[in-house]
Amino acid sequence: MLVHEHIRETIEKFYVCTHIPIRSVDFNGIPIHSAGYSGAMDELFERQHVFEQAKKELTAVHTRFVTITAPEHIHFTACQICGKNINRGFHIIGPYASQPKAARDSLVYKPAYCIPYLLELLRTIAADSAYFKQKLKTYYEQPYSLYVKKAIDYMDARYHEPMTLEDTAHYLKISKSYLCNLFKKETGKTFSQFLNELRIEKSKKMLAEEDLPVLDIALAVGFNNQNYYNLIFKKLMRRTPLEFRKNSLQRNDAV
């Protein structure tokens, strides 16, 4: 099923980004997919009745997520796969350690204040995965060379991370100067220009749909400070991020 393929892609990417085990189950507890799980983690999941607790609490209380506590500062965090339809099932992040002393090779330390950000990352990955191929379709239909297509793919998958032309050239196993010239020749833009435009496009969706501070959005899409983000946003959009958000809210209210 396409929905299950979307879920599989989402949690695989989440695990690659965070190294925190994650599994998805349907509303009846039937596994859809998991990433990073070991036999011992499966046993802990079953022993602590994580699915049953998650379903009970998420069904009874209108909340974004619930955290299930196991012994020795070990936790799981669960949220709905689809915010508008609980019957789609649940993503369950963990196990993870809430105290440094509980962390070990297979158990990542994540304090409680990190959890909302991890859930936001999961939501962002899910949104990207849902239209990932469609989003890049325009690029791939262009007469770009294989290296430029792969560079764009790499940028779209990792735009939220620190990234340079040199990093991308290393990933493609070609020289920095060759990629620089090829990218500019085929796209008409420098690597930095293209990356900035991609990050701004990603941030526009968050500005319109999320009630997050502009700084958090800037950091989430890969900018390392708000001033530079504001500068690039205004240069490309002819308005500030806050003005863009205000206009988006006004359009939504008018619908």
UniProtKB/TrEMBL annotation:
<protein>
    <submittedName>
        <fullName>AraC family transcriptional regulator</fullName>
    </submittedName>
</protein>
<dbReference type="GO" id="GO:0003700">
    <property type="term" value="F:DNA-binding transcription factor activity"/>
</dbReference>
<dbReference type="GO" id="GO:0043565">
    <property type="term" value="F:sequence-specific DNA binding"/>
</dbReference>
<dbReference type="InterPro" id="IPR009057">
    <property type="entry name" value="Homeodomain-like_sf"/>
</dbReference>
<feature type="domain" description="HTH araC/xylS-type">
    <location>
        <begin position="149"/>
        <end position="247"/>
    </location>
</feature>
<dbReference type="Pfam" id="PF12833">
    <property type="entry name" value="HTH_18"/>
</dbReference>
<keyword id="KW-0804">Transcription</keyword>
<dbReference type="InterPro" id="IPR018060">
    <property type="entry name" value="HTH_AraC"/>
</dbReference>
<keyword id="KW-0238">DNA-binding</keyword>
<dbReference type="InterPro" id="IPR018062">
    <property type="entry name" value="HTH_AraC-typ_CS"/>
</dbReference>
<keyword id="KW-0805">Transcription regulation</keyword>
